[in-house]
Amino acid sequence: MGAGGPDDEDNRWPPWLKPLLKESFFVQCKLHADSHKSECNMYCLDCMNGALCSLCLAYHKDHHAIQIRRSSYHDVIRVSEIQKVLDITGVQTYVINSARVVFLNERPQPRPGKGVTNTCEVCERSLLDSFRFCSLGCKIVGTSKTFQKRKKHSAALASDSEESHSSSSHHGQGKRKFQSFTPQTPPPTINYRTARRRKGIPHRAPMGVIMGY
User: Fold this and answer.
1) What was the pLDDT predicted at 177?
2) How many other β-carbons are positioned within 10 Å of the β-carbon of residue 181?
3) Based on C-alpha coordinates, what's the Rg of the chain?
4) Could you tell me if 40 and 17 are in contact, meaning their C-beta atoms sit under 8 angstroms apart?
5) Mean pLDDT throughout 172-185?
6) Phi and psi, residue 206, nearest 5°
7) Which of 1, 68, 133, 148 could join 139 via S-S bond, C-beta 3.0 to 4.6 A?
8) Range list of β-strands (E), the chain
């Protein structure tokens, strides 16, 4: 592929990262099912041949293996392990059981909490202001050229929609202002019964009263 193609996107990351994020951990090892240490929570970055149990490590001497841990049914890895082999800048870290960790994959929230000012650029989980992503998986997606182009396109559409709405609202206000200069005054109500009322017949003073003066 030429410059800017899918191969360039893949070369940005170590070859073991995407397989690691797709792997299922904390399952029973098929090779050591009879052992009480058969839970698969290890991964060999050199072999990339799936989740391993502690007994499998005997076949991976001198290899770079990392341990996966769990928090609330989600896979995490200690920062002290992963930062030696991967740049985790922008990914929020958490302190769990006195150890600082990062999550492997996204954990979407149905709705951000009130007062939240920063969220993951991919899954919109609430974050501290200094971070961009909630997990390693979200960083891979959020820094890809495809995602960035889609994000810019969505922002442009939102901006056009806002400008259109603002222009329409301004036009409507101008129209209302123009109409306000010529208010419709209702015609006066005429009570024809009162207007046609006949005047009463004037009464003259009696002659005797006048003569008394």
Assistant:
1) 45
2) 6
3) 40
4) no
5) 47
6) -60, 150
7) 133
8) 42-44, 51-52, 65-67, 69-71, 74-78, 94-96, 99-103
Cα(33)–Cα(36) distance, integer angstroms: 8
Contacts of 80 (CB under 8 A, 6+ apart): 99, 100
pTM over 0.85: no
Q: Smallest Cα–Cα separation from 69: which of 39, 89, 90?
A: 39
Q: Helices then strands (H, E): number in the chain? A: 7, 7
Over the stretch 9-57, which tens digit does the pLDDT of each residue have?
Answer: 667 899 999 999 999 999 999 999 998 889 999 999 999 999 999 999 9
Query: Which two structure tokens, joined as six digits, stand for 29?
Result: 């090892």
- What is the spatial distance between Cα 208 and Cα 213, in angstroms, rounded to a whole number? 9
Residues 6+ apart with CB under 8 A from 68: 25, 26, 41, 42, 43, 51, 75, 76, 77, 104
8 A C-beta contact, residue 19 and residue 140: no
Query: What secondary structure does DSSP assign to 54-95, as a single string?
Result: TTGGGGSTTS-EEE-EEETTEEEEEHHHHTTTS--TTB--EE
**How many Cβ atoms are within 10 Å of 146's Cβ, its own excluded?**
10
